[in-house]
């Protein structure tokens, strides 16, 4: 089994011209490719591994999808697409977002870079 990890999968955001993400349409194209060439791991297949560890040999070429940071696009875009395809996605949610009710620093940095860009500045020491 191969694991492919995703982070930002979304539609374009006009006020963030430099934001790095995978467009939802390209995400669907990737899923099409994975399905055609490898197969996507289903929930049932993944659950069989608990009682039948040797079943892993049947999944050796399939793709398991994982998604970091529990972003809202994972719920609104990715999850419905995975349901349509009967594919499993494992979603990792940082608990600090829930406990502190504020964005992670890394996401704040991504949004700043997405708004203003990150290149073109040089300094000399």
Cα gyration radius (Å) = 18 Å
Number of helices: 5
**Secondary-structure element pattern, one letter each:** EEEHHEHEHH
What topology, given as strand order, has the largest sheet? 1-4-5
CATH homologous superfamily label: Glycoside hydrolase/deacetylase
Shape: globular
* Secondary-structure arrangement, i.e. CATH architecture: Alpha-Beta Barrel
Strands, count: 5
Q: Which structural class best describes the helix and strand composition?
A: alpha/beta
Classify the helix fraction into a percent range.
40-55%
Number of domains: 1
* Overall average residue pLDDT: 91
How much of the residues is beta strand, in percent? Answer: 15-25%
For the sheet with most strands, the description reads: 3 strands, parallel
């Amino acid at each position: 089994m191969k694991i492919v990890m995703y982070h930002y999968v979304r539609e374009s955001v006009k006020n963030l011209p430099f934001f790095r993400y995978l467009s939802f349409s390209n995400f669907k194209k990737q899923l099409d490719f994975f399905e055609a060439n490898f197969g996507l791991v289903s929930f049932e297949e993944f659950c069989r591994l608990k009682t039948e560890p040797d079943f892993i040999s049947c999944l050796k070429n399939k793709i398991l999808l994982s998604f970091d940071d529990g972003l809202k696009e994972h719920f609104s875009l990715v999850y419905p697409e995975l349901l349509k395809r009967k594919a499993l996605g494992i979603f990792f949610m940082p608990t600090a977002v829930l406990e502190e009710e504020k964005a992670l620093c890394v996401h704040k940095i991504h949004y700043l870079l997405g708004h203003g860009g990150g290149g073109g500045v040089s300094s000399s020491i």
